[in-house]
Amino acid sequence: MNNNKTFMLNSPLGSIFPGNQEEGLKEISKNDKNLVAVSGKIKKPGIVTLTSNTTLRDIIELSGGMLNDKPLKAAQLGLPFGGFYTKKDIDRQITPDSFEEGISHSIIILSEEDCIIQYAKFYIDFLLGKINGGYIDHYIPALPEILQMVKVLNRISKGRSNMRDIFLLRELSQTVKEKVHQKYNLIEEVIIYFYDEIKDHVEDNRCYTLQCNNLTKLTIMDNCIGCDKCTKVCPVDCIVGDFKEQHYIDYTRCTHCGACLSTCPVNAITSGNNSILFLRDLATPNKIVITQMAPSVRVAIGEAFGFETGANVEKKIAAGLRKLGVDYVFDTTWAADLTIMEEANELAERVKRYLEGDKEVKLPILTSCCPAWVKFIEQNYGDMLDVPSTSKSPMQMFAAVAKDLWGKEKGLSREQITSVAIMPCIAKKYEASRPEFSRGLNYDVDYVITTTELIDIFKKSNIDLSQLEDEEIDQVMGEYTGAGIIFGRTGGVIEAATRTAVELITGQRVDNIEFTSLRGFDGFRSCELTVGDLTLRIGVTYGLKEARKMLDKIRSGEEFYHAIEIMACTGGCIGGGGQPRAKKREETIKSRMEGLNEIDRSLPLRRSNDNPAVLAIYEKFLDYPLSNKAQELLHTRYFVKRKK
Q1: Is 254 noted as a catalytic residue in this protein?
Q2: Phi and psi at residue 282, in whole multiples of 5°?
């Protein structure tokens, strides 16, 4: 765990002074009342000197102007809170007297890119961190109301509120103001100045800034040039619009695969960006931020820092994340091994029943790690929902174990842990927001950061992975096998599953576990895997158009498979919509694929059932694969989603 959050956190979306620098911010103005620290949506955050006629406009200009040249939304004076200036106050003078006694001489600039609900949540979390740290004891009498504000804002940000929540927020803010003897209350002013934006969240489930995870979908912005490239690559024909006019997405058909985003030449398509949320959480006092990284991230992110394509830079990523201030750096690959323990046992159980003549058993079994195809099968093949494995994806297994088991051992509640997933995939943002992966309004994965978003965060934070010393990933939920690592490529999930499943079916140890018959780069592959007397027929495909062909053949009885793997993206997760773009796309994807294969070959443990950290979880908490406890924590169900 690393608490050295000592420098200004910066990203393409803004800058933040970490919570432990508040005393430092006060020191800035202790000897010179004219010094003010400026952060937020400005190009050059830092210290500004006030003169006798300095206005808010001047401060913004001295700070390099607004980030991305977006309009000013508001300026918060001081910490904890000294009032809002809004765009109507742009020419208002700011002097040392503008700051109340006892608050820091700091200004946080918000632009129209900032969601006011997310900012209010950050402010309240920050306030709670300072209260819990014993820094602002005079807020303790209002603690019940502040905690209630957290719940209300959480409901609003997740689309689970109504207009009475705004009424309640107003009442709570007035009570806090009275109890703490505040001149200004942030929540009260948010309601006064930004009522319509709050109302949009509540009544329309709409966040126009795309910063509220649960209200955000893939969106085509108004800078769309109507080139039709997205229309041509969309595998489910959900994009509509005339040539050279703005296009739109039919969300009842969209699977969030991100193919459109990857091909757009003008960056007019977005899935929302959680970078600023990540930085705010890192800056919040007493908040425990943990990350997990998917297998394919480590062989792609290095391309942006001068490493060869396919190079494994997981230890550089760990060092970079700790430099940002992440408390625990874990690995999704560990959970991939856990997923295989469940999926392989499901596969072995179904195949055994089939070989024994059970005509009721459902085959093939479908690996269930790609959220885009999960939504695709829910929308298009509702009659086949008994085919997929019920095992959660590694991302969701990791997060459930982290919040419900690891956190409990550490004495942490779910609310104290911010669980961040670093993923190659746009659809993972959608998966993280599915209500079945939550306990009430506390989601197992709080939000997803894509590979490209993390690259931006590192670069704008002046973190160059090539210049960092290697650091190990935190263990317990970090140790992985070769089977877990190949999850990131096409054919890898089913190969990992069969490495364990064939031994469960035959009862014999298999020496040669490189099942090359399952490998390849064709979008649709029918493979036969023979081990001793056992022959399994397995289908592997990537791309949802190819997936449709395979599922149609299975549905009609034209093809039979014991198991199939479907991935939405080219080459699997290594070609995900959140990965860095490549000019030589196929060549790059193949290099990333070989990078994963090389890690697999180099590891002493290559079967998921040999992972001691995974076996320890069963021994300590879950008993055995497919136990009642495992079913409750590690499995899910699917739902028919009718499309228009």
Answers
A1: no
A2: -65, -30
Question: Which residue is catalytic, options 189, 314, 378, 431?
Answer: 431
Contacts of residue 552, defined as CB under 8 A and 6 or more positions apart, other chains included, come to none
What's the CA dihedral at 424, 437, 415, 628 to 10 degrees?
Answer: -120
- Domains in the chain (CATH in brackets) are 1-113 (3.10.20.600), 216-270 (3.30.70.20), 287-334+397-403+413-461 (3.40.50.1780), 339-394+479-634 (3.40.950.10)
* pLDDT value for 359: 85
Highest mean pLDDT among 172-186, 253-267, 566-580: 172-186
Q: What is the tens place of the pLDDT at every residue in 237-262?
A: 999 999 999 999 998 889 998 889 88
Q: Would the CA dihedral through 446, 452, 454, 460 be positive or negative?
A: negative
Check: CB of residue 166 under 8 Å from CB of residue 188: no
Q: Is 643 a catalytic residue?
A: no
Rounded Cα distance between 264 and 227, Å, is: 9
Q: Is 431 a catalytic residue?
A: yes
Catalytic-role residue among 130, 287, 392, 428: 428
| Active-site residue, 495 included | no
Stated pTM of the model: 0.90
**Pair of tokens at residue 436:** 């079945």
Asked if residues 140 and 176 have their Cβ atoms less than 8 Å apart, the reply is no
